[in-house]
Amino acid sequence: MIGIFDSGIGGLTVVKKIFEYMGKYQILYFGDTARTPYGGRGEATIKKYALEDVEFLIKNGAKIIVVACNTASAVALRELKEKITLPIFNVVEPAVNAAIKISRGRIGVIGTRATVESKIYEKLINPPKFFREKLRRVKVFSQAAPLLVPLVEEDWLKKPETRRIVKKYLVPLRANQIDTLILACTHYPFLRKIIQAKIGRWVKIIDPAEEVVKEIKNFLEKNPEIEKELARGSSHQFFVSDLTPKFQELAGKWLDRKIKLNEVEI
After folding, report:
1. 185: annotated active-site residue
2. What average pLDDT does this structure show over 199-220?
């Protein structure tokens, strides 16, 4: 199975893209809803949670791992790769690669505080001089947008308050005249239409969920021995560490299909 984890249910944006691009494979999803959000946690705590999440996925049959959480991708990826032997994909690097290809030189990033404070996007977009001899310099403007996650999980997608908050977060990025914007949190694609309207139609938006799924698809095409190990069919499994009627309702709504969330203790 393709194992996917996130700090909550926002990672279902990745699941939805897998259904769209690679629908024949079984999905194993874990959302750490009891401990969400990771974005306000300390580095050591995020690393601990991420490792526990991966171990749960492996224990339940995952053959490849997708870190759908931007915060965990930014903070814990190195440790995960050191300790886990399975192929691990993350939502940060594919988004960076896509942004660099299309940007004219001014990239904006919105994410959780932990993601922004990690400066992972700045480090990947503009690596140290030794490594960027042949790369052009790109200016990166990052903006923490912590209120957007609870707004999405409250399903306030059409509320005027949400539009005002989105606009406020994007004001500095508009002032810096960005031409490309990375949605560095799995929840943010649900607000894409509002974000596009507030940032300007000329700004290209990068959805990391779509980019990581493209990378996984390409990887499996080049590694048939791993691809053969993945279970096929529609017997997908969805787990959360805290189950509420709201999470169940949103999960079905976001995936446009009826699914059952199962509560487990990590």
Report:
1. yes
2. 96
DSSP string, 167-227: HHHHHHHHHTT-SEEEEESTTGGGGHHHHHHHH-TTSEEE-HHHHHHHHHHHHHHH-HHHH
Write down the mean pLDDT value for the chain: 92
| 70 a catalytic residue | no
Give the model's pLDDT for residue 135.
Answer: 52
Phi, psi of 176 (to 5 degrees): -90, 5
Please tell us whether the domain made up of 93-208 is placed in CATH 3.40.50.720.
Answer: no
Q: Catalytic pick from 15, 77, 151, 185?
A: 185
Q: Which of 1, 50, 57, 69 does the annotation list as catalytic? A: 69
Q: Which fold has domain 2-90+209-263?
A: Rossmann fold (3.40.50)
Asked if pLDDT for residue 191 goes beyond 90, the answer is yes
Domain limits of the chain?
Answer: 2-90+209-263, 93-208
Q: Over 90: is that where the pLDDT of 196 sits? A: yes
